[in-house]
Amino acid sequence: AQKVTQAQTEISVVEKEDVTLDCVYETRDTTYYLFWYKQPPSGELVFLIRRNSFDEQNEISGRYSWNFQKSTSSFNFTITASQVVDSAVYFCALSGMGGGSNYKLTFGKGTLLTVNP
Amino acid sequence: DAGVTQSPTHLIKTRGQQVTLRCSPISGHKSVSWYQQVLGQGPQFIFQYYEKEERGRGNFPDRFSARQFPNYSSELNVNALLLGDSALYLCASSLTRESRNSPLHFGNGTRLTVT
């Protein structure tokens, strides 16, 4: 069975602070994919990044960066110089390759990020 | 290009009734997936359809059913509604069958309230 744990239920920061959202996953698959999605109040899930299990390079996209560490089964997400528009619920998700699970995502419970002006 | 569109946006039903939710995928996307998101939780997988065939089903009772039409749009049906079915129902489309090859693109969802 696959599992994604986002231990931080809510985080509140002041604008321009850096913030890291934690994600820990469990899977028996040797090949798998990890995702981050953003859900603003409108409800739509916005795709941010996909990373496969063979690529442990960190990735940076503007103010966003991701740290994938297979040894600790973690895929953390950092927002640098946070802005009010970053306020949303952020979900980490996992997609496996075996046991019929390669077509669905297993989501964590999400982290509500509030950026105050 | 239009994103994934879902209708209706909000719906209120009574226990025991039946409901049909609709989804139109992004143009060119052949895979449609349905997810249920209960308040305060992450989305949970219900179904995936690819090329009009069911390719996967999550841990949901038989009261939940779906289908995909020749134009790749999809309907999710829920019979004998329970209070616990109240949730945001999200539809997602992707270019290919497997999420490893293309990410899922989600719609804004249908908010279902069962009273």
Write the layout of secondary structure elements.
The complex is a heterodimer of chains A (117) and B (115).
Chain A: E1 3-5, E2 10-14, E3 19-21, E4 24-26, E5 33-39, E6 46-52, E7 59-61, E8 64-69, E9 74-79, E10 88-95, E11 106-107, E12 111-116
Parallel strand pairs in A: 2-12
Antiparallel strand pairs in A: 1-4, 3-9, 5-6, 5-10, 7-8, 8-9, 10-11, 10-12
Chain B: E1 5-7, E2 10-13, E3 19-24, E4 31-37, E5 44-50, E6 53-57, E7 64-68, E8 74-78, E9 87-94, E10 105-106, E11 110-114
Parallel strand pairs in B: 2-11
Antiparallel strand pairs in B: 1-3, 3-8, 4-5, 4-9, 5-6, 7-8, 9-10, 9-11
Can you offer a commentary on this structure?
- The complex is a heterodimer of chains A (117) and B (115).
- With 117 residues, chain A is mainly beta.
- In chain A, 0% of the residues lie in helices and 50% in strands.
- Chain A is globular and about 45 Å long.
- Chain A starts with a strand and ends with a strand.
- Chain B has 115 residues and is mostly beta strands.
- In chain B, 0% of the residues lie in helices and 50% in strands.
- Chain B is built from no helices and 11 strands.
- Chain B has strands at residues 5-7, 10-13, 19-24, 31-37, 44-50, 53-57, 64-68, 74-78, 87-94, 105-106, 110-114.
- In chain B, strand 7 (64-68) and strand 8 form a beta hairpin.
- The mean pLDDT of chain B is 93.
- Chain A binds chain B through residues 4, 33, 35, 37, 42-47, 50, 52, 91, 93, 95, 97, 100, 102-110, and chain B through 3, 31, 33, 40-45, 48, 50, 55-56, 58, 88, 90, 92, 97-100, 103-109, 111.
Distance between the termini of chain B: 37 Å
Give me the secondary-structure category of chain A.
mainly beta
**Arithmetic mean pLDDT of chain A:** 90
Uncertain segments of chain B are none
Largest sheet of chain A: 6 strands, mixed
Task: Give the number of helices of chain B.
Answer: 0
Order of helices and strands of chain B: EEEEEEEEEEE
* Poorly predicted runs of 5 or more residues of chain A: none
Q: What's the shape of chain A?
A: globular
Structure summary, number of beta strands of chain B: 11
